[in-house]
UniProtKB/TrEMBL annotation:
Gene giving rise to this polypeptide: WSCD1
Protein's organism: Oncorhynchus tshawytscha (Chinook salmon)
Pfam families in the cross-refs: WSC
Keyword Repeat: yes
Domain (WSC) ranges: 145-251, 262-356
Annotated protein name in UniProt: WSC domain-containing protein
KW Phosphoprotein (keyword) present: no
Length: 597
């Protein structure tokens, strides 16, 4: 009996040593592979980066909602929804949403580390070292649409080109930048860019991924070899450098041939009492028209063009000229007549136009200078406008927002906090759609964004069918997927709000529709809640640039009402329950437009 036991002990000892040896060998092999990969970043700049694994941008609805709700039928909207309406309290899906991994952010940080390493590497290199690298790195002679002018200095305080800016960390090329600045893009060529006519004279690229447009170059030219970073979407083509801008001319058009589809008429406004405080620039023109005034202000890179015949003024919205109190249009029509006998009270009104020029006073953004010990959630039901509010918060505060998830499309379009670990403390708030008790209690406070369930459901269905900026077709709305979607997601809309009201430690309720109508006051309250000081100029700049790149153009709707009477009965009951819960906790109730009439 002892002999078999002895043999078994010897076998187990050998097995332990064998497993230990395999573990050490595995770790050493992994280390060698990592070292080889790191060396490739420096020595093989032309190599393409492996694609990142895609991660879901939003969570799936709680399993209880997917499995527990029946398909749409007459009288089939009871069950959990009726219990929510009756109790005014949401379900508790904490255990059903715990299907995520805590280290998913590690999967997407490789490109950011490379980018930071490249900046650090070039900041330490001497001119001699840089010339050696340039000689050793072959470059392709990539043709460009416009003429290359040269390499120019650029920094965040004094931009070389001040017209507008957009970012693409994955697909940026010199041709894309030139097309955007000269307005040759259309909706079918790039679904993530607004379909606008910019009409700028120059296009500049920096860091391989940033595109700047403008009509004047305001910085000094440097040696061409200082622009030494590849375009993210075109290896071998130069797209600026670290603090260096590769500048191209774009196709020129005669002033009368330019058309600006994104010029917006802001209204008729009284001239401010202290005109000097608004920093208006007076433009003298013969045969002044609204078109010529807009083009003159665009050429001078101002976001506002103000017409009062025979004068044209260019400038910005300021605390003394906020554009929040429009006057009657008849004042401007009378003020712009040629009669000099008008009363003095009618001689001081402007017709104000928003030009395609981007207000640059709020475009510079950074991570928090010191890690925050407080974790703030920006929570909403999917389709409630979370991305748009993140864009507004970044403009108003100057700090990046983070995300509990990772959406590569958002990161490529400039949301740098998308890749940052959501608990890093470097972002001012964190996007989330979660609503379980355990997830809620991880945050110290929350900005709870609420939108009409009718519009939220349609927006999320559009996104699921056609992406961030697309629209579902009539055929999509007529399939069985739509009633099943409403059956599951309508209850989730209500329970999401109720759970955050119940378990949230410090809650600021923000209504999407109020942001649309009174943006600046609501942004001011959000900034105060985030314990951040913002200037009035920056808030007005955020209002000027409020649309961003993730806004569906127009208001395309299905040709028929997609909500059946049964659906409306369900949704209206949920609206009443949420409205009552908000009032019971001393919050403002839902806007009147939500409530059934």
């Amino acid at each position: 009996m002892a002999k078999p036991l002895y043999r078994l002990q010897r076998f187990l000892r050998r097995a332990q040593l064998f497993l230990l040896f395999l573990g050490v060998a595995y770790i050493m092999a992994g280390s060698v592979l990592l070292l080889q990969r790191a060396s490739l970043v420096v020595t093989q700049r032309g190599a393409t980066s492996p694609p990142l694994p895609s991660l879901p941008s939003i969570p799936s609805p709680p399993r209880a909602l997917e499995l527990g709700m029946p398909p749409v039928r007459v009288g089939g909207y009871g069950g959990r929804s009726s219990r929510i309406m009756a109790r005014g309290q949401g379900y508790q899906p904490g255990s059903l949403l715990d299907n995520r991994t805590g280290a998913r952010w590690l999967m997407s940080r490789n490109l950011e580390i490379r980018h930071l390493r490249r900046r650090w590497f070039h900041s330490l290199m001497t001119e001699k070292d840089m010339s050696q690298v340039e000689r050793s790195t072959p470059r392709r002679n990539v043709p460009h649409k416009g003429s290359y002018i040269g390499c120019f200095l650029d920094n965040s305080k004094e931009r070389a080109l001040r017209g507008s800016v957009f970012t693409d960390f994955r697909k940026m090329t010199s041709t894309m930048c030139q097309d955007t600045c000269s307005a040759r893009l259309n909706c079918t060529e790039s679904v993530y860019l607004e379909c606008t006519h910019s009409g700028y004279q120059f296009a500049g690229l920096e860091y391989g991924s940033e595109c700047y447009c403008g009509n004047h170059i305001t910085s000094l030219r440097v040696r061409d070899k200082e622009c030494n970073l590849d375009c993210k979407g075109e290896k071998g083509s130069v797209c600026g450098g670290v603090g260096r801008l590769s500048v191209f001319t774009v196709e020129d058009m005669l002033p009368g041939q330019r058309r600006y589809r994104n010029v917006r008429y802001r209204g008729c406004f009284r001239e401010p009492e202290n005109s000097s405080s608004t920093s208006l620039v007076h433009v003298l023109q013969l045969n002044l028209t609204s078109q010529s005034c807009i083009e003159a202000c665009m050429n001078k890179e101002f976001p506002l063009a103000m017409l009062r015949s025979p004068d044209c003024f260019c400038g910005y919205a300021t605390p003394d000229f906020t554009l929040h109190e429009p006057a009657e249009e008849e004042h401007c029509s009378q003020s712009n007549t040629t009669e000099a006998s008008l009363p003095s009270t009618l001689q001081h009104f402007y017709q104000v136009y928003q030009t395609p020029v981007q207000d640059s006073r709020c475009t510079e953004k950074n991570f928090l200078p010191e890690k925050s010990s407080s974790l703030v959630a920006l929570s909403s039901f999917p389709g409630a406008g979370n991305t748009w509010v993140r864009h507004l918060i970044e403009l108003a505060t100057g700090y990046y927002t983070g995300s509990y998830y990772f959406d590569g499309t958002l990161y490529n379009r400039g949301f740098k906090g998308e890749k940052d670990y959501w608990k890093s403390g470097r972002t001012i708030c964190v996007k989330t759609h979660e609503s379980g008790r355990r997830e809620i209690e991880m945050y110290d406070s929350v900005i709870l964004l609420i939108r009409s369930p009718y519009r939220s459901l349609m927006a999320e269905f559009n996104r699921k069918c056609a992406g961030h900026l697309g629209y579902a077709s009539d055929q999509h709305w007529k399939t069985k997927e739509w009633p099943e979607f409403v059956s599951s997601y309508a209850s989730w809309w209500a329970s999401h709000v109720l759970d955050w009201l119940r378990f949230g430690q410090r809650v600021l309720v923000v209504h999407f529709e109020e942001l649309q109508t009174v943006l600046v006051p609501r942004l001011r309250s959000i900034a105060s809640f985030l314990n951040t000081t913002v200037t009035e100029d920056r808030l007005l700049c955020a209002e000027s640039n409020q649309d961003g790149h993730f806004k569906r153009s127009g208001a395309r709707q299905p040709t028929f009402d997609p909500f059946t009477p049964d659906m409306r009965g369900l949704i209206d009951g949920l609206i009443r329950a949420v409205d009552q819960a908000l009032r019971d906790r001393n919050h403002t109730g839902l806007p009147l437009e939500y409530l059934p009439r």
